[in-house]
UniProtKB/TrEMBL annotation:
Keyword check for Transferase: yes
Magnesium recorded as keyword: no
PROSITE patterns: GNAT (PS51186)
Record keywords: Acyltransferase, Transferase
Protein name, per record: GCN5-related N-acetyltransferase
SUPFAM superfamilies in the cross-refs: Acyl-CoA N-acyltransferases (Nat)
Recorded GO MF terms: acyltransferase activity, transferring groups other than amino-acyl groups
Species classification: Bacteria, Pseudomonadati, Chlorobiota, Chlorobiia, Chlorobiales
InterPro entries tied to this protein: Acyl_CoA_acyltransferase (IPR016181), Bact_Acetyltransf (IPR050832), GNAT_dom (IPR000182)
Organism: Chlorobaculum parvum (strain DSM 263 / NCIMB 8327) (Chlorobium vibrioforme subsp. thiosulfatophilum)
PANTHER family membership: AMINOALKYLPHOSPHONATE N-ACETYLTRANSFERASE-RELATED-RELATED (PTHR43877)
Classification via Gene3D superfamilies: 3.40.630.30
Length: 166
């Protein structure tokens, strides 16, 4: 599908939160069990200056999804690592948009000197686990049974992808 990737701006936050909240209400992909306000969404995403964040819009201007990177840690020893978050509207999945967002995030991350992208996923989020595996992420560990959502225990699955030069 043809989409345009645009840097996130303040006007995008309400639509981004709506996409996130759809996952809150209709999946087990998020850590939160109840929809969040735009302000709380912004806190959860931990947007970081100078780190890439994109929205994907179709030819009609509809937001298909978003992806962003943030520092993995504030400790300088981990400056080359970043954490990724990516969500697509349900009717836009499986069309290559996630791969386009990931490619743009990787490209911008490499320019920042980032060599590792980390994703932390719920073991109940089969679709995202599959996407990450197909896109070159490697499962590096699990925090077994530490989460509970809607009465279901879940693992936090740690995925890592090396990018750029090491």
């Amino acid at each position: 599908m043809q989409v345009e990737l645009l840097p996130v701006c303040a006007d995008d936050l309400e639509e981004m939160a709506a996409i996130f909240n759809d996952y809150v209400e209709h999946s087990l992909a998020t850590w939160t069990e109840t929809p969040v306000s735009v302000d709380r969404f912004e806190e959860l995403m931990c947007f970081a200056p100078d780190y890439p964040a994109f929205v994907a819009r179709d030819v009609d201007g509809v937001m298909a999804g978003f992806g962003l990177l943030r520092p993995y840690s504030s400790i300088p020893a981990f400056d080359r690592a970043t954490e990724m978050t990516c969500f697509l509207k349900q009717d836009f999945t499986g069309q290559g948009i996630g791969r386009k967002l990931l490619a743009a995030l990787e490209s911008d991350a490499a320019k920042l000197g980032v060599t590792t992208i980390i994703s932390m996923l719920s073991s109940l989020n089969k679709q995202s686990l599959h996407f990450h595996s197909r896109c070159g992420f490697i499962e590096r560990g699990r925090l077994v049974g530490i989460g509970r959502r809607n009465g279901l225990d879940f693992d936090v699955v740690l995925f890592q992808k090396s990018i750029g030069e090491e």
